[in-house]
Amino acid sequence: MQTLWTTPNDYPATSTVAASPIRVTSDAHPPTRRRYLVSTTPPNGQGWDSAPPPPAYGAGPQPLRPDEEKMWAILAHVLPLIGLGFIAPLVIWLVFRGRGPYLENQAKESLNFQITVLIAVVVGSILTIVLVGFVILAVVGIGALVLEIMAAVAASRFEWYRYPLTLRLVK
After folding, report:
1. What single DSSP character describes residue 37?
2. Is residue 170 within 8 Å of residue 106, measured between CB atoms?
3. Segment Disordered: which positions (predicted)?
4. Which has more confidence, 15 or 108?
């Protein structure tokens, strides 16, 4: 039985073969070689002097298209209507911050309004002991519903909406 030695130099330069030599006996199968297809043309048929691909992860957020900004702005105003309160505009603002000035403004506006409504509901709930709280809760509920619908309609027209009687806590 004859022993043959093969070194990593026998393999292509891009191979991931260990640095130690491989022992092959004559009655064993020879080691399989990995074949690599190397292309001289760039991917997607572009020339080498064309524009580079977009930056990879960590290069910063890509700005939103206007239709995406409008959709998320509408959702920032509508989602509190289905019971998500200040959570929906907060999440939208945190996720899309810096990706579009319109969406950022409308999410902050909705967040400020929802915080103001929450404060008014807490005060109204406490004042139900004196029976004035029931009136406050009714006015706040109807007012919030009307103003949120008006804000959603304004956002669907891509208009900058500003809620009246709102504490501007988030700048």
Report:
1. -
2. no
3. 25-62
4. 108
CB 114 within 8 A of CB 80: yes
pLDDT at 97 over 80: yes
In a domain, 27, yes or no: no
Q: What is the mean pLDDT of residues 125-129?
A: 93
In a domain, 73, yes or no: yes
Q: What is the rounded average pLDDT of the residues 24-41?
A: 56
Give the span between the Cα atoms of 119 and 64, in whole angstroms: 32
Residue 5, beta-bridge partner list: 23
Please, which residues have CB within 8 angstroms of residue 89's CB and are 6 or more apart in sequence?
Answer: 76, 77, 79, 80, 107, 108, 110, 111, 114
Domain span including residue 137: 66-156
Residue 39 resides in a domain: no
User: Is residue 83 one of the residues assigned to a domain?
Assistant: yes
Domains contained in the chain, number: 1
